[in-house]
């Protein structure tokens, strides 16, 4: 087991491991690093240095802080990971993590985890994305709610964009919590359609639950 303190930079989880500054992004299928090899947890992983035109330099610029590594689901899936945003702790383990919570089955698309949430008693599927400071839904859902204003976000492939935001009660298991949702640009909405999902949920999920994610076995444990 390896434990890190996390910095939540504008809602984005970042850890320091030696000289590496690592942005943990469950919404990214591939790891991008300053070189083609990343040494992490005493293992060596093959990485992209340029993924569809993306480099860590460009991601650092969009984030507003320097990173050496975007840790994607290809590497994340090798571990069981505890996310504890309240105590700003993250743990990586090869073995089962001792955690008292409710276990649910999840699915994935290209290694990106998918969970089920309820809004207005409607079951919807969401990409579970630690890289998303704002969560996202289609405007067919958010149009029923009053906007709380405009916020700026970014997505690595298309850069920065602005979106109307909405605070919407959302249910996971027996727990209701408030999530700040925006509307994705059309290009990204097409990605949701490919994954047969209805939205993306990020920071607000992890800020409300302690989570153990096991991507290899498509399992998630959570506790309030």
Question: What can you see in these coordinates?
Answer:
By secondary structure, the protein is mainly beta. The chain contains five helices and 21 strands. The chain has helices at 56-63, 73-76, 139-142, 186-194, 203-208, and strands at residues 2-5, 7-9, 12-17, 20-24, 32-33, 37-40, 43-46, 69-71, 80-84, 89-93, 102-105, 107-109, 112-119, 122-128, 135-137, 149-155, 159-172, 175-182, 199-201, 210-214, 219-223. It has an eight-stranded mixed sheet with strand order 12-13-14-19-15-18-17-16. Strands 1-10-9-20-21-11 form a six-stranded antiparallel sheet. A hairpin with a 3-residue loop joins β16 (149-155) and β17 (159-172). The longest helix has 9 residues, at 186-194. It is globular. The mean pLDDT is 95.
| Low-confidence regions | none
Describe the global form: globular
H/I helix tally? 5
Characterize the main sheet: 8 strands, mixed
- SSE-based structural type: mainly beta
* Proportion of residues in helical segments: 10-25%
Query: Strand content of the residues, in percent?
Result: over 45%
Structural features:
single chain, 224 residues, mainly beta, six-stranded antiparallel sheet, 14% helix
List the helices and strands and how they pair.
Blueprint: E1 2-5, E2 7-9, E3 12-17, E4 20-24, E5 32-33, E6 37-40, E7 43-46, H1 56-63, E8 69-71, H2 73-76, E9 80-84, E10 89-93, E11 102-105, E12 107-109, E13 112-119, E14 122-128, E15 135-137, H3 139-142, E16 149-155, E17 159-172, E18 175-182, H4 186-194, E19 199-201, H5 203-208, E20 210-214, E21 219-223
Parallel strand pairs: 4-8, 14-19, 15-18
Antiparallel strand pairs: 1-10, 2-3, 3-4, 5-8, 6-7, 9-10, 9-20, 11-21, 12-13, 13-14, 15-19, 16-17, 17-18, 20-21
